[in-house]
Specification:
Elements lengths: L2 H14 L10 H6 L4 H30 L5 H27 L1 H7 L10 H10 L5 H9 L1 H33 L11 H16 L6
Helix pairs in contact: 1-8, 3-4, 3-6, 3-8, 4-5, 4-6, 7-8, 8-9
Length: 207
């Protein structure tokens, strides 16, 4: 097992193949919760936690159950969504009990993590369309494959969090800027998103 291999997975997930700015998955919370840094931070932590646990749970389910009993085509997506929904429900109950202010701030976007295509995407990409690095480690050992998939889920979540916090900082500054009326609100948010995506595109040549 090579440390450089795990560093490659981390760099790709956070920068070169960022789920928000390279794959454009999970744009709903990205544009809906980034008006304030506190809300963006809460959503980023929740999504990162769900991505990590989803990867850790779905990889063994895929390898030990779905593949073994030839259920991949029939049950892969429903099983993954069920896992994600369960994890989101646990987080929602925790925030409601322990952090009611953040729970109210996140509003409808918290349960929407269940159908967040970024969370589902990382589960699918760790199994059905797994990167070469994860496939290689999985062939060596099931444990190594599980560690690699979980690591990718965690780093993908960190990449998601990075994009959320950057966007939140930009939008908080834009709120005090003299933005032309036709670009106010969502249009300027899309312009900033496209510029951030172009900036992150530069990382693809570093792998």
């Amino acid at each position: 097992m090579s440390i450089s291999l795990f560093m490659t997975i981390a760099f790709a997930s956070i920068f070169a193949s960022n789920f928000l700015l390279a794959k454009f998955l999970g744009l709903c919370p990205f544009l809906g919760v980034t008006q304030k840094m506190k809300s963006a931070m809460g959503m980023a932590v929740a999504v990162t936690f769900v991505m990590f646990l989803t990867s850790a749970v779905t990889y063994p389910l895929y390898m030990l159950v779905l593949v073994k009993y030839d259920l991949v085509l029939a049950l892969k997506t429903p099983v993954y969504i069920l896992v994600i929904a369960t994890l989101v429900q646990i987080i929602e109950m925790f925030l409601k009990a322990r952090m009611p202010t953040l729970y109210r701030a996140l509003g409808i976007y918290l349960p929407l993590i269940t159908t967040n295509c970024a969370v589902l995407g990382v589960a699918l990409l760790n199994t059905t369309d797994a990167p070469e690095e994860i496939v290689r480690l999985g062939q060596q050992s099931f444990t190594l494959g599980l560690v690699a998939a979980s690591w990718r889920g965690l780093t993908a979540g960190l990449g998601f969090a990075l994009a959320m916090l950057l966007m939140s900082g930009i939008r908080e500054r834009i709120a005090f800027a003299d933005v032309p009326k036709p670009l106010q609100g969502m249009p300027i948010a899309f312009v900033c998103t496209s510029m951030m995506a172009l900036a992150f595109l530069a990382f693809t040549g570093m792998l």
